[in-house]
Amino acid sequence: MAKETVSGHEFCPFGYSDREFRSMKPPSNLESRKVHHRELESHIRGYSKRNLSHDCDSMNAFAGILRYYESVAAGGNRPMTHLWGVPLKLLGYPENEWVLFNLIWYHKGIAHRRDTLPSWSWSGWGGSVTFGSSALRIQALTDELAANKTLDK
Fold it and tell me: Using CA atoms, how far apart are residues 64 and 39, in angstroms rounded to an integer?
């Protein structure tokens, strides 16, 4: 006797699965924030290739781009700011938030030091910047520390 109905994992009447449609759905908030972070790093890479007349212009000239990304992040109710040009983003969920920032960058070529800006920031150096593939993350305090409880051994 022929099987007339199919159910469970075998059922896919037109030979399609949801994988073909995943790219069509709008990105989640976390995916969207990752896209903005990658786009901002791309802007930093492009900007760092420029030769500036005055080293002190490094942060002043890039501030407009940083303000744009701050406003985009504010629209998603997730703060994004920067510390001397290094993007700081709040990610995760309210009960487990963490700050993402990228200090893993380097110059493939010769770079010159901008004395008026911190050496740990890409803005403190003149020359083309390349970012590493990972970023540093700081998690929120534990419940015990947040409640000002002492930690006994």
Answer: 15
Beta strands in 12-152 (DSSP E): 80-83, 86-93, 96-101, 105-107, 112-113, 125-126, 129-131, 136-139
Give 46-67 pLDDT, tens digit per residue.
888 888 887 777 788 788 888 8
> Per this entry, what is the length of the chain?
153
Provide φ and ψ at 13, rounded to 5°. -60, -30
pTM to 2 decimals? 0.59
95, two tokens: 């009960």
CA distances from 71 to 41, 76, 79, 120 (A): 16, 9, 9, 25
- Per residue in 90-115, pLDDT (tens digit) is 665 555 556 666 778 888 888 999 88
Closest of 69, 97, 66 to residue 83, by C-alpha: 66
The neighbouring-strand residues paired with 80 are 89
Task: For residues 61-75, give the mean pLDDT.
Answer: 77
Which among 54, 38, 35 is positioned nearest to 46, based on CA atoms? 38
Task: Delimit the domains of the chain by residue range.
Answer: 27-146
